[in-house]
Specification:
165 residues, mainly alpha, 3 domains, 8 helices, 76% helix
Length: 165
């Protein structure tokens, strides 16, 4: 392929509109201008692009509705409010979770304190049984006795006091 058959590279093709509008930097503009002056194929591509732009000028242009700007700004404002509402919802939910966590911690501390105080202050029935184990071991015999008068009679009887003499 000779120099007059060189095609534009994808980068040069992307910069072609900026070149035609005079908005391309000096170095890139000189590179495209050199290629266009040396290559008939590149010039055909530019002419094709220019014809396409001319044909586009003949198409009817759509006109935006009169309230287009107002509707667009209203939609943007609504979305900002929704986004802010989402942020507010996240903050509100976080506050509720923190509050629930604080109440759970306070409840656990109160339960723990109540348990410790109950263990320390409330009498343990097992301790009493341990202290009074001899009574508990002979409880049935004591129930058979019935009253203190019977025990008094036993103390005063000579058979009971026989080994004391």
């Amino acid at each position: 392929m000779g120099p007059d058959q060189q095609r534009l590279t994808p980068t040069e093709r992307a910069d072609l509109v900026a070149y035609l509008d005079g908005e391309l930097g000096d170095a890139d503009a000189r590179a495209i201008a050199t290629k266009l002056s040396n290559s008939a194929t590149a010039r055909c591509e530019v002419e094709s692009l220019e014809k396409t732009w001319e044909l586009l000028e003949h198409l009817p242009r759509l006109r935006a509705a009169d309230d287009f700007t107002a509707r667009t700004l209203t939609e943007v404002a609504r979305r900002e409010v929704e986004a802010g509402g989402l942020g507010t919802a996240v903050v509100r939910t976080t506050r509720h979770l923190v509050r629930a966590l604080v109440w759970m911690v306070i409840s656990l501390l109160a339960f723990g304190l109540g348990y410790v105080l109950t263990q320390a202050i409330w009498p343990n029935p097992s301790d009493r049984l341990t202290r009074e184990l001899p009574i508990a071991e002979h409880l049935e015999e004591y129930r058979d006795v019935g009253t203190f008068e019977f025990l008094q009679e036993l103390v005063e009887s000579p058979e009971f006091n026989a080994d004391r003499d």
